Amino acid sequence: MIRIPLIFAALTANLLMTAAYAETTDPQDFDAVEAKLRGLVPNAKTIAVSETPIAGVLQVQINSDIVYVTSDGKYLLQGQIMDIDSRSNLTDQAKSGIRLDLLTGLNEDEQITFAPVEPEHSVLVFTDIDCGYCRKLHNEMAEYNEQGIAIHYLAFPRAGIGSASFDKFVSVWCADDQKSALTLAKNGSDPEPQKCPNPIAEQYDLGREVG
Predict the structure, then answer these.
(1) Which residues are catalytic?
(2) How much is the pTM?
(3) Could you tell me the residue ranges of all domains in the chain?
(4) Beta-bridge partners for 59
(5) What Cα–Cα distance (Å) separates residue 5 from each residue in 36, 49, 50, 100?
(6) 3-class SS at 144?
(7) CATH fourth-level superfamily of 108-210
(8) Residues 6 or more apart from 35 whose CB is under 8 A from it?
(9) 62: number of Cβ within 10 Å
(10) Closest of 160, 159, 190, 187 to residue 172, by C-alpha
(11) What is the pLDDT of residues 132-177, one digit of tens each?
C-alpha cells in the first residue's frame, strides 16, 4: 500500500455534503490535485484523478490504491465510499477495475497451466508452493479439469523474493517439465535446484499490487 507522508485532516459529514462545491469538478482541479500528489508520491507509476458521486470529493488512483481528495486539494481521505441505497461498495468496484486492468493481457507462456482438452472456464491463481490451502487446491486439480475448468498459475511465494519458497518456484519454472515439478513440489518434494531467466519476481510483485 502507498504510504503518503501527510498528516490527514478529518472531514466532517457536513463538509462532505456542503453545497459550496459544484456538482461537477473543473478539469483544472484534476490537474492541480494530480500535481500536488505527484509532489507527495514522486515515485508513483500511476496517479489518476476522477470524480465521485460526492460533490467536491475526487477519487485518486495511486498505483493500485484508491484514496480520496477534496477538489481544492486540501484534504486527503483514506477509506471506502458506500452507496447506501444500492448497498454497493464504490471503492471496491474501483479497485476491481484496477485489478482487471493489471491482469488483462498477461502472457500465458509465463503461466503454468493445468487444463482440460476443451476448457469451458479459466481461473487465474496466485499460488505458493508451501501454502497448505494452495496444496489442497492443487490436489483437487483433476476434479476442476473434469468440470471444464482450466487453472492458470502465477507465482506468489508469500515469504518474499529470495526466500526458500521463492527459490523452489524458480527451480520449478526452470524444470524441463514444469507441471510435474510443481506437482512434486506441492506434494512436499523439493525440486532440483536450477537457475534460469524467469518471471517469478515480477509475478510476486504483481500479486502484491493486486492485493
Answers:
(1) 128, 131, 134, 158
(2) 0.69
(3) 13-103, 108-210
(4) 50, 68
(5) 12, 19, 22, 28
(6) helix
(7) Glutaredoxin (3.40.30.10)
(8) none
(9) 19
(10) 190
(11) 999 999 999 999 999 999 999 999 999 999 999 999 999 999 999 9
